């Protein structure tokens, strides 16, 4: 049995002014071809790693094509996408020339938007389908934040999304796809899918799968998965910072050769979620309220998730409201992870460790990110940015924050970086000599992924609404392309029952 595998992963913010180029794919998580994939990803927590591990378990030949991942950012340049797609299809063709292929495993994010193509993932799947024809299976393992469309469900054989946020089950989902593709080829399993789209905004703070209210949603999904005839249930909470027609949460039910069971089950689960829509929505705290509440509880370190400037969602990572507030309140043992500002890093490099720099930090990408903050700070450490992840999300994989500096003014420390990778854990700070566990206040430019590594030592955690382009006050997004009215924007908050 020979299965081709690969993927082009990107979560695209149509609100970000940073275009996504081929260099981003090459420099972010990297662009891997053929055998390089097999050497890099076995055992790692990415779906392609799970495909490789699954192939080993089942003894089939995995034919690696091309795999690449750019950090979330703005629209993908059309020429970049066209080049990646063309190379992928060329490699697929070469793989077929070397011997017959039985199917394809695709590692795609599910919220990819390209210049002129609103449903990037749907387009990619349909091009692979066009090449391999209607009979052979294509399985896709998207992120929990995909904006799913009817096109994908029509073109793929089965879609199996992540079950966790933070995403700690990517390898597991990859293996699940490998298990299912073997059953399709050998045991005559025939997946059929039903998509149920949900017209509401799902607050990030209500999506953490080990906590309520999200845990209940996933428990329900797993209960359905144990029913006869059901192969898989995907809950996708959507990615609201993409202004595309099919933005929003959805359910995908995969059943074995029974379309009416898939439809009925998707309807049952989808309407259960819709009836409880008030539960999945929560206005975030203001920065000051969050600090005050954490102090009142006395639970340190207080962690502020600066989710409106979550670089992991495609923002510039240089918003300043929290830094300014830390300085105004003269907080002690306070840390900002991170501020993207190459100019400040260059100054710090020039001053050297122990030097003092007087400069303006952050707030340079867009006025919405807040004004730059004046600082007179000591350079505590410098780094070229390379490190290894050690937390549950990407343990063992290489990270690179680019040239970076730890600067400190009184009790407030800032890690200034050049690359826009979100702080998944303290691993990079540790390389600079910072002990996150001894801090009182930590601000992370992340929505929830930080939790996998920070939660074990956090005293309290607040998702805060600081001024930045990815506001969680969803009415401000002013979607122009969305095809339905959404709760709680056009459909009023109070219209939903409090259950
Ligand atoms: Zn995600």
UniProtKB/TrEMBL annotation:
Domain Microcystin LR degradation protein MlrC N-terminal: 2-293
Family matches, as InterPro entries: MlrC, MlrC_C, MlrC_N
Domain Microcystin LR degradation protein MlrC C-terminal: residue ranges: 304-481
Superkingdom of origin organism: Bacteria
Annotated protein name in UniProt: Microcystinase C
Taxonomic source organism: Gimesia aquarii
